[in-house]
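### Sample
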Amino acid sequence: MSTAVDPTITLTKDDGWWIARDTETGVVSQGEDRGEALENLDEALSGYHGEGRTPTDEDLRAAGIDPERNVSGEPEPDSETFDLS
């Protein structure tokens, strides 16, 4: 959901990493310098907005994720959820 407010990006440095945060969406990324943090944020925002491709099983394994256990959808029944509306 978009608001009438122009998106704002904040950049902070923490423990040697630059952290870029889009305040409209809450999407956060990091990089070793400002440029890398902003590039990574741009990529993360593209994914947030549904762009990109679905990872292959090989992609998931390379990221340390077992493809057989990778599920999305409803949270686990014992997980806490909060309605923020």
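The mean pLDDT is 84. This sample (Type II toxin-antitoxin system HicB family antitoxin) is used throughout the tutorial notebook.
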